[in-house]
Amino acid sequence: MTLYQKYCKETFDESGRLTGFELVYPESFNFSYDVVDEYARLEPDKRALVWCDISGNEKQFTFADLKNESDRCANVLLEAGIGRGDKVLVALKKHYEYWITIIALHKIGAVIIPVTHMLTAKDYIYRIETTPIKGFVITHEGDVCERVLEAVKKTGIDCRLWTVREDREGFRNLTREMQQASPVLERRETCVSDPMMLYFTSGTTGLPKGVIHDHSYPLAHIITAKYWHHVRDNGLHFTVAETGWAKSSWGKLYGQWLAGSAVMVFDFDNFDPKMMMHILNKYEVTTFCAPPTVYRYLVRSGIPELPKLTHATTAGELLNPEVFRLFKEKTGLSLCEGYGQTETALLTANFDAETSVAGSMGKPSPQYDVRIFRADGTEAEAGEVGEVCVVPKHKGERPAGLFKSYLNNDSLFEEVWRGGVYHTGDSASRDENGCFWFSGRFDDIIKTGGYRVGPYEVENVLMEHPDVLECSVIGVPDRLRGQAIKAFIKLRSGVEASRELEKKIKEFANTRLSDYKWVRLIEFVDEMPRTVSGKIRKVDQRDN
Fold first, then answer.
1. Residue 162 Cα to chain centre, angstroms
2. What CATH class is the domain 446-543?
């Protein structure tokens, strides 16, 4: 059985195509109680999560298992003083403990801050200084614990620190504490408008900004899972994404469970195309979603028969038409692209494989009124490039799935919501058939290897090098990564450009940056192209 129909009204045309969609939910809606625990009550043995790692370890969880484990986890958190509205930073990679922890945090009304394990101590310090964090739940692997301890020590905050599975100095062992905790948890009061999740996303004009979603956000992903991913009841969906990114919420949790599908999780660090294909077949994955970078590697390494796979989707960056063609040639499946932001749920997509167009963002989700606007606020004509905007279907509303606010930045929130319309900052055009075509990002975010990187973060590090007077970072086309990070650097007076200096600056920056932010290319320049107001024209750098 599925639960999603309990929370929406759907209308279809004569061919069965979804034409209208409206969410219906109570003020008390809480995904953990109303979906996870409800499945545990109705179908306790229904499969929810299938997990394996690179070493061959594997675990499977029913909804009854997840209810029991999340109740124990919630009791541990409550006993430690974590409660409604408290913020807890979670860096658990793709460990199965992430799903237990996030369900528990939703139950007690705490706000989860999912982050990648690749953050540096400096990254943690920024987040601590930006918002009060009362707890950390992090992986025991690598040097994540050391980075967090360094950040906590430097900021002097009073917080609770947990890791999982193994004992680490300075941390409580959440796994052990859960084993000793009560499996009984009474439902606690929460409201659908309460903040539920805080993602830090990157921009070009400042440091990472906080995007806050409320408890209606999970319901907005019914469309994502049911009508874009095409998950099915008792199927198995696999989205390639680490839990620190919003793509994880899109494909590894909310919509999939609402639509009755189990979630496949492969816990790995280094991507291996052949191993990925092995996992798809071994566990009989039925639906699959990954960034174009993954598909490029898969096509390049060779795709075996995938008899159980029925649908494949992609998002995160532009898809090369050649990859689209080769994947269909090998599997018979058309890749269906989708588009959205950390601030939103799925906005546009190729919802039907039969009509999927390579390179297109697809058509607007029935959940939203998505349009292309000119700078003057009027709607663009077919073929005309403008800004992708979301118009509320009812004046003054904030559609479910669109973020609640920016952390500590009301002015930016008002700016993107000017005129009662949400402005994505992305440019696109619409053809005569109603398909959207991506043109570019107004905020110049770089998409590399499936990750989003704000140039400002990389530029900040480069500017710390004593020989760098000025720099500008952009993304340039890269066959495997989609985009590679390139830095234009103006050296201080008296310093000569050389291959040796280029190597030293790369090493300087990349030892201070997370792996996915590494500078791959450097070009030394005498001057930067500028606007009349003195701003660097990144568009000129990209075009040259």
1. 23
2. alpha beta
Structure token pair of residue 46: 């229904």
Residues 6 or more apart whose CB falls under 8 angstroms from that of 476 comprise: 483, 484, 486, 521, 542
pLDDT tens column, 367-390: 999 999 998 999 999 988 889 999
- Pull the structure tokens for residue 100: 């237990």
> How much is the CA Rg of the chain, to the nearest whole Å?
23
Selection from 91, 480, 69 nearest residue 292 by Cα: 480
Q: Which residues contact 329 (CB under 8 A, 6 or more apart)?
A: none
Q: Each residue of 222-233: b (16+ CB within 10 Å) or e? A: bbbbbbbbbbbe
Give every CB contact of residue 473 below 8 A, 6+ residues apart in sequence: 446, 455, 458, 459, 462, 485, 486, 487, 488, 519
At residue 533, the pLDDT reads 42
The dihedrals phi and psi of 481, each to the nearest 5 degrees, come to -90, -10
* Token reading at 345: 């749920």
Please provide residue 58's backbone torsions phi and psi, each rounded to the nearest 5 degrees: -150, 150
pTM of the complete model:
0.87
Length of the chain: 544
Question: Helix (H) and strand (E) counts for the chain?
Answer: 18, 28
Per-residue tokens: 96: 């199965």
Give yes or no for a contact between 461 and 513, defined as CB atoms under 8 angstroms apart: yes
- Domain boundaries, given as residue ranges, for the chain: 60-213, 446-543
Cα dihedral 376/382/386/387 (nearest 10)? 100
Spatial neighbors of 299 by CB under 8 A, at least 6 apart, are 323, 326, 327, 330
* Predicted confidence (pLDDT) at residue 532 exceeds the cutoff of 50: no
Q: What is the pLDDT of residues 214-249, one digit of tens each?
A: 999 999 999 999 999 999 999 999 999 999 999 999
> Which of 3.40.50.360, 3.40.50.980, 3.40.50.970, 3.90.1150.200 is the CATH number of 60-213?
3.40.50.980
Q: At what angle do helices 63-79 and 97-108 cross, to 10 degrees?
A: 60
Separation in Å, CA 256 to CA 124, 212, 519: 31, 21, 36
- C-alpha 50/C-alpha 43 separation (Å) is 17
